[in-house]
Design a protein that fits this description.
alpha/beta
């Protein structure tokens, strides 16, 4: 294993309220999830927390402006074969009540973080409020953990923070490919933001 940071294995989560910054940014078509790959990637960390009897609070963004996470919460429940609750905001009394009502093995999805501008602005009060919902923070969204957003860098200022299995898996895979690859080695890249890919492509040219 190449991962050198603490993971959810290294912290006591039994019966605790665990905030998981996970990847629920799944594509939606006609009101339903059209590709569940990202949701399935979140399952190992969630399953482990269920095994430990944790109270699980899932927070995430969605890149499509105005997109609610409600249909995603429903799809995730089907994948897990476990009830997943949803609350239509990540702030306010409804969110506070939903978090307070959680029992061991409960899973709650809070509404799209980006419905509040404070998320991308890395607002300290926003992060402090989110952190008040939990006892432990787990970062499990590898695709977003480079961003300086409140849910990613703000919450760990207030709570013990560890990585989830999704982040661990991605780092281990990338490290192995770059440091001790099997050859021949081919890199396949994708994504809409070409400007962010040029430095990566330049780096990969030396490796692949």
């Amino acid at each position: 294993m190449s991962f050198t940071k603490q993971t959810v294995r290294d912290i006591d989560v039994r019966g605790k309220r665990v905030i998981v910054r996970t990847m629920l940014n799944a594509p939606i078509k006609d009101g339903s999830v059209s590709d569940s790959m990202r949701l399935k990637a979140a399952v190992p960390t969630i399953d482990y927390l269920l095994e430990q009897g944790a109270r699980i609070i899932l927070i995430s963004h969605h890149s499509h402006e105005g997109q609610s996470l409600e249909p995603i919460a429903h799809a995730l429940g089907n994948i897990l074969e476990h009830p997943v609750k949803f609350v239509g905001d990540c702030l306010g009394r409804d969110a506070e009540r939903a978090v307070s009502a959680l029992k061991p093995l409960d899973i709650l999805v809070l509404e799209n973080l980006r419905f509040h501008a404070q998320e991308e602005a890395n607002d300290a009060e926003f992060a402090k409020t989110l952190s008040s919902y939990g006892d432990v923070f787990v970062e499990d969204d590898f695709t977003a953990c480079h961003r300086k957003h409140a849910s990613l860098v703000g919450i760990p200022r207030y709570l013990p923070a560890v990585a989830g299995f999704g982040v661990e898996r991605e780092v281990d895979t990338i490290t192995k490919v770059l440091e001790n690859p099997s050859r021949p080695l081919v890199a396949v890249t994708g994504g809409a933001k070409v400007s962010t890919k040029i430095p990566i492509l330049s780096f990969l040219l030396k490796k692949v």
